[in-house]
Structure formats: C-alpha cells, structure tokens
Design goal:
- By secondary structure, the chain is an alpha/beta fold.
- α4 links the parallel β4 and β5.
- α1 packs across α8 and α4 runs parallel beside α5.
- It is globular and about 45 Å long.
- About 45% of the residues are buried.
- The model has no long low-confidence stretch (mean pLDDT about 95).
- Bound molecules: nicotinamide-adenine-dinucleotide.
- Nicotinamide-adenine-dinucleotide binds next to α1 and α6.
- This is SDR family oxidoreductase.
- InterPro entries: NAD(P)-bd_dom_sf, SDR, SDR_fam.
- Pfam families: adh_short_C2.
Length: about 250
C-alpha cells in the first residue's frame, strides 16, 4: 500500500531514540523529509545519520519540549529548512514514575510541561498553517495508561488522559479543514524507557510473557502505526486513541 505521503514534511519530537526515532524512520521510508528534535545532542546526531540512509532531507533541532519557547522555535526552523510541517508526531520522554505519595509537586510540574503542555504548544505552533493549507496530520504518542490506569505511574495516568481529551476534542474541531488528529497508546515497547522501568533483561523477558503475543513490542511496530495514521490512507481515521499493545488490554472497546 502506498501511504501517499512522499514529499510531505514531518516533525517528530523526542525523535532521537525509541518510539520517536522509529516513527521518524517509518515516515522517511515513506518518502517524507523529516525534522527530529530532542534534548541530547549526541543521540540526535546519531539519529540524523540513521535517518539519512533513507535518502530524504533530514534536519535536527536541539530542544526540550518542557521549554515554553521550544515548540515555536522547532516548528519555525523546520519550515525554514524543509517547508511547512505537514505531519506532527508529538512525542517526548515519559513523566517521572511513582505512586501519589512518591511524586512531589515538582514532578507534577515536569509531567504537565513535558507530556501535556509540550504537546499542546506543538499543536498550537503547527495548526494554523495546516488548516490554511487544507491538509495536516497530528499524531500524539501517549500510553496504554489512557485505557487502564497503570499502578505506580500516577503522572502518566493523569497527563496522558488529558492529551487523549485534547485529541478527541480537537479532531472534531479541525477535521473539516483536512487536519486529522489521532493518538497512539503503546503497550510495553522495548526502548530505553522500558529498560529503565523494568531494571534488567530478565524482567523485560518476563514482562513480554504477560503479553498475548508473547513478547514486548519493537519500536518500529509503533513507528509503522504512526506512519499509517499520518498518511493519506488514514483519511477517515480521526480522533481515535489507538491501543498498540500486542493484545494485552482486556478492555473491550
Ligand atoms: P525513550 O526514553 O526511549 O525516548 C524518549 C525520546 O524523547 C528520546 O529521544 C529523548 O531524547 C526524548 N526526550 C525525552 N524528554 C524530552 C523532552 N523533555 N524534550 C524533548 N525530547 C525529550 O522513550 P520511548 O520508550 O521511546 O517512549 C516515548 C513515549 O512513549 C514516552 O512518552 C513514553 O512514556 C511513552 N510510552 C512508552 C512505552 C514503552 O514501553 N517504551 C509504553 C507506553 C508509553
């Protein structure tokens, strides 16, 4: 299937590793020029090298989505180098882990900035041009915690649900302008984030046994779903929070 997005400009934040990098690769493979943004200069430089293998124009912007001025700067730089953003993949690291009595108010602030307002500011920065050009795709990366609260990840449960609310509402407001807004809810995916949460390889393997397909997911299995949602082929998919978890959730709908 030709996804119909060759030549589009994609911006992927948190794009130097894990799910973000995988999404950037899937989009580059489909012919998009890609801007990746993240906080760590070395990993970002490595990501650019990996992405250049797809033969498309690649740009990188060092930025922390928690910085209120970052979104506008990243979007403007992408426009200057690659052109207006057609596809936004709003992604970043996860919020601090912990139960209610383990997370302080500073942690709440980090989570709201990184995982809610960071996304909102990016959408603010790309939306007017997408609407005026009559085409756009916004894909947020949140978590399966939108469907089922995860014990010990209070801040994920709280902030990701807020993003899902933004997605559902915004999708109804801008779908008529050709801008589709969707949300991907990864289950356990083998990235630095999951390794850090699980502690060691044995714990990661055991975690995989809890998933009906018998393993945790690979980043590219999220990246390809993101590319589909960002594509011309997904033209009637709008406002969904799509669980990609190997069948782990027992929630029926
Ligand atoms: P990761 O830690 O492997 O990669 C995170 C990426 O985001 C890196 O490029 C990092 O440099 C960048 N980043 C981190 N904080 C940033 C910030 N403040 N500003 C800009 N860039 C920032 O994480 P991942 O596993 O790829 O997860 C991506 C998202 O998906 C996270 O929000 C995570 O919580 C969520 N998620 C992951 C899993 C999983 O199992 N891996 C499951 C559910 C949800």
């Amino acid at each position: 299937m030709d996804l119909g997005i060759s030549g589009k400009v994609a911006l992927v934040t948190g794009g130097s590793a894990g799910i973000g990098l995988a999404a950037a690769k899937s989009l580059a493979r489909e012919g998009c020029d890609v801007c990746v943004s993240a906080r760590d200069p070395e990993r970002l430089a490595d990501a650019v090298v990996e992405l250049q293998e797809f033969g498309k124009v690649v740009h990188a912007v060092l930025a922390d989505v928690e910085d209120p001025s970052a979104a506008r700067r990243v979007v403007e730089e992408t426009r200057d180098v690659l052109g207006p953003v057609d596809i936004l993949v709003a992604n970043a690291g996860g919020p601090p882990a912990g139960r209610f009595d383990q997370v302080g108010l500073d942690d709440w602030d980090v989570a709201v900035q990184r995982n809610l307002l960071g996304t909102v500011r990016l959408i603010h920065a790309v939306l007017p041009e997408m609407r005026s050009r009559g085409w756009g795709r916004i894909v947020t990366i949140t978590s399966r915690s939108v469907r089922e609260a995860i014990d010990g990840l209070l801040l994920s449960n709280a902030t990701r649900s807020a993003v899902a609310g933004v997605v559902r509402t915004l999708a109804r407001e801008v779908g008529g302008d050709g801008v589709l807004v969707n949300n991907v809810l990864p289950g356990p995916i083998e990235t630095d984030r999951l390794r850090q949460l699980m502690g060691d390889e044995e714990a990661l393997r055991r975690r995989g046994e809890e998933v009906p397909v018998g393993r945790v997911g690979r980043p590219e299995e999220i990246g390809d779903v993101v590319a589909f949602l960002a594509s011309e082929r997904a033209s009637f998919v709008n406002g969904v929070s799509l669980l990609v978890d190997g069948g782990e959730s027992r929630v029926i709908a």
